[in-house]
């Protein structure tokens, strides 16, 4: 039953990744926490395992999604490289914040930020006229912020990368495709950090490397890699206005969930 749950979660995460250019971490982490509880894992390690495992899955999901968008010419690789310059630093900062803040306060701010971005996209307010694509320096600094939040919350960064790129007048399909490719360096840095952080911790399951539980990674990844191209195909069949509204609705739901979930733990 748990294997079936991993496969179902992977299918859903893969479609969302391909459609919206996100890694699906904010979907996977809560479900993984529940499944790990059913496994009987030590309670004090469940959230760390869920986040670390989610990041490891995103490595495979982002590759499948990025390739699907690349075949349709929707990945701006120079932008991916520029943003990636900040991801390594941001991933490290996210790990530090996870230790010192526990993530609750930042998660509340992040939830509010998602609601603001969702409202902007839903209302269709356009960026200022003449606003150009962000430069290398701007992208590097944005990468630090995106990488920090992503590593802290176990996500692929699409909920921040897509709004950043569309605000600079990048076509929504190119923003989604570029964001999907950005998920790979974020997930690599983040998952490696959680493996190191969990190394030597007592009470972790046998089939894990630090805070990454490999049976879950395998089950979810197999399904997500297969379903991500379907999401990418849907993204390129929706017109830009509908795709923006879908993404805005997704952001709004995540923002509300983040705020409600973390208000009870603040």
Notes on the structure:
It is a single chain. With 266 residues, the chain is mainly α. The chain has one domain (2-263). Helices cover 78% and strands 2% of the residues. Strands 1-2 form a two-stranded antiparallel ribbon. The mean pLDDT is 81.
Cα end-to-end separation: 34 Å
Gyration radius from CA atoms, angstroms: 17 Å
> Domains counted in the coordinates: how many?
1
- Number of E-type strands: 2
The helicity comes to over 70%
SS strand fraction: under 5%
Helix and strand composition category = mainly alpha
In N-to-C order, the SSE pattern is HHHHHHHHEEHH
Largest sheet: 2 strands, antiparallel
Spatial strand order of the main sheet: 1-2
Summarize the structure.
By secondary structure, this protein is an all-alpha fold. The chain has ten helices and two strands; from the N terminus they run ααααααααββαα.
Keywords:
266 residues, two-stranded antiparallel sheet, globular
Which helices and strands occur, and which strands form pairs?
Blueprint: H1 2-20, H2 25-39, H3 46-71, H4 77-100, H5 104-123, H6 136-153, H7 158-167, H8 172-198, E1 208-209, E2 212-213, H9 214-237, H10 240-263
Helix pairs in contact: 1-2, 1-3, 1-9, 2-3, 3-8, 3-9, 4-6, 4-8, 5-10, 6-8, 7-8
């Amino acid at each position: 039953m748990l294997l079936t749950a991993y496969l179902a979660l992977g299918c859903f995460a893969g479609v969302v990744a391909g459609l919206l250019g996100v890694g699906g971490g904010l979907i996977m982490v809560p479900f993984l926490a529940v499944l790990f509880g059913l496994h009987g894992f030590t309670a004090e390690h469940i959230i760390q395992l869920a986040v670390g495992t989610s990041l490891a899955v995103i490595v495979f999901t982002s590759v499948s999604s990025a390739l699907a968008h690349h075949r349709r010419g929707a990945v701006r690789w120079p932008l991916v490289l520029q943003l990636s310059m900040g991801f390594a630093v941001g991933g490290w900062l996210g790990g530090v914040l996870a230790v010192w803040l526990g993530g609750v306060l930042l998660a509340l701010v992040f939830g509010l930020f998602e609601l603001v971005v969702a409202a902007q996209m839903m209302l269709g307010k356009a960026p200022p006229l003449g606003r150009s694509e962000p430069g290398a320096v701007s992208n590097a600094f944005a990468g630090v912020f995106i990488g920090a939040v992503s590593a802290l919350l176990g996500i692929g960064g699409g909920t921040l990368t897509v709004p950043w790129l569309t605000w600079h007048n990048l076509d929504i399909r190119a923003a989604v495709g570029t964001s999907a490719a950005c998920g790979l360096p974020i997930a690599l840095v983040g998952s490696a950090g959680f493996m190191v952080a969990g190394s030597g911790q007592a009470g972790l399951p046998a089939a894990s490397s630090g805070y990454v539980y490999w049976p879950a990674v395998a089950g979810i990844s197999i399904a997500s890699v297969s379903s991500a191209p379907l999401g990418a195909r849907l993204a390129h069949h929706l017109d830009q206005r509908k795709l923006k509204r879908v993404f805005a609705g997704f952001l709004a739901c995540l923002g509300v969930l983040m705020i409600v979930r973390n208000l009870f733990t603040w």
